[in-house]
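in:
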């Protein structure tokens, strides 16, 4: 019931206004806090680097460059950096290709590493090959467990396995040899055994030693 006393009515109105003003900030806080939490939850992931890294795809695959990993289907943990690197790879896994056309023809081969222009460029199903340098193991198709380091090293190898070539054009003309060995001259029977040279050297180093393959 409203009082006819103007002074009393004025005091009641002032008290009501003060109560309303006092409750407004609290009410506003209840609205803003949940809103702020919702915005934070919906905000994008904060990365340690800016801009954030791209090129990451399902299956722990990474690709950077035009047509890199273009044909991938079920392969996992592949890394392709460069123009058409690992372009034809479909099911091969655990491959690393850095450089234009590196491992570009690989389809199902796995565990290969190629660094350099067209390194292991023709490899299709070969596995566990390592190539450092342009054109290294460039013609390899199905050969496996080969290691080549140096421009065009083991370039002509196609199906050979377990070869190691280090140096410019080392073992360039090897095609299908398995574990290439360089024969060493035997010591005469009169020489003591402790001074005798080992008859075989399993690793060829450099173009001259690689060319010696043709003599044995």
């Amino acid at each position: 019931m409203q009082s006819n006393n103007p002074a009393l009515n004025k005091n009641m109105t002032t008290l009501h206004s003060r109560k309303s003003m006092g409750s407004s900030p609290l009410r506003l806080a209840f609205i803003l806090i949940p809103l702020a939490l919702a915005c934070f939850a919906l905000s994008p992931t904060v990365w340690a680097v800016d801009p954030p890294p791209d090129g990451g795809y399902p299956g722990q695959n990474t690709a950077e460059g035009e047509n890199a990993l273009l044909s991938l289907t079920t392969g996992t943990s592949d890394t392709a950096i460069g123009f058409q690197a690992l372009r034809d790879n479909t099911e091969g896994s655990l491959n690393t290709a850095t450089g234009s056309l590196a491992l570009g023809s690989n389809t199902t081969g796995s565990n290969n590493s190629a660094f350099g222009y067209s390194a292991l460029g023709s490899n299709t199903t070969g596995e566990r090959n390592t190539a450092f340098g342009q054109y290294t193991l460039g013609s390899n198709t199905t050969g496996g467990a080969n290691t080549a380091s140096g421009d065009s090293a083991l370039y002509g190898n196609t199906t050979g396995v377990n070869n190691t070539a280090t140096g410019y054009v080392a073992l360039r003309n090897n095609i299908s040899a398995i574990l290439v060995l360089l024969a060493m001259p035997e010591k005469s029977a009169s020489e003591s055994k402790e001074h005798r040279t080992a008859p075989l050297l399993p690793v060829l180093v450099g173009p001259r030693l690689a060319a010696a393959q043709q003599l044995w």
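note: Residues 116 and 134 are 5 Å apart (CA to CA).
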